Known about the structure:
The protein is an alpha/beta fold.
Amino acid sequence: MLLISNNYLEGQIPVSLIAISFLVLLDLPANRLSGDLPHRFSSDTRMLFLQDNNFSGTIPDTVLGNASILDLRNNRLSGNIPKFVSNQKIYILLLRGNYLTGSIPSQMCGLTNIQLLDLSDNRLNGSIPSCFSNISFSFPTLQHDGQEALNLSHNHLSGVIPESFSNMEDLESLDLSFNLLHGQIPSQLTKLSSLAVFNVSYNNLSGIIPLKGQFSTFDETSYIGNPLLCGQPTNRSCNGDTLKETPADVGEEEEDVIDIVSFYWSIIAAYVTVLLGILASLSFDSSWSRTWFSVVDAFIHKVKSLIS
Length: 308
C-alpha cells in the first residue's frame, strides 16, 4: 500500500507508480496532483483514493480495472461519465464534486454490486435510468450492517422518479435533491423498508406525499422546495386548505440528530466490510498476508475521513 495524503505533491501520477505490483491500496488524496487520470492502474490495486486534487480531463473507460473502491471526489474532471468496462468487483464509486456533464449512461446499471454510488454536485442532465433497479445496493457475499446509498443530488436531472426504484430493497439512503425532477413521488417506494434517509427537496415534484412504511418517519426537510407537494409532513392540504402546523417536539428533534449521526457512522461499517471482503479473498500463503494488519489499520483511519 502507498499512503501519501494531505501533502503538497504536484504534477501527474508517475507511470512507474501505478505499475507497482502488489499495490492493494493507493492513497493520494488532498494533494495538488493534476493532469489526466491514468488509463489503467495495476491489476493488483483494489482501492484508489484520489479525491481532493486537481485532476482534469475525462475519466477513462478503463480506470476501474480491478478496483473495488474508486474515490475521485472534488477534482476538476469533465466530460461524460464513461461507459465503464464491466467490473463486477466495484462496490464503492464516488464521483461527487466534479464537472461531469451529459446523461447517466445505462451501462452503469451493469455495475450490479455497487454499494455506495455518489454522482452528486456535477452537471448531469437527462432522466434517471430506470435500470438502476438492477443494482442491489448490497454486499453480495458477506452479511453486514453497512450503508447502501445512492446520491444524485445537485445536478440538472429531469423526468420522473422511476417506480422501479422500489426494487432496490436494501437501499438505506436516497438523495435526489436539487434537480429538475417532476411528477409524483411513486407510492411503490414505500416498499423500501430499510430506507433511513430520503431527500427530494428543491425539485418540481407534485401530488400527495406517501406516508406508509419508512415514509412516515421523514419530516418536511425531505420535501422542501416542492410547492406542489401536499399532505403531511407539509402544511399543505391536498384539497386546497392549509394544514395547521404544530411545533416540533424537542425530544423528536434530538432523536433525529442521533439517527443521522448513527447513519453516517454506518458508512464506516460499509467500508470496513468491503475491505474485509477484499482481503478475505486473498491467499494468506502469498505476499498479500504481509500487508494484512497494516492495510486494516490504515483503512480504518481512511474511512473516518469519508464522512467529513
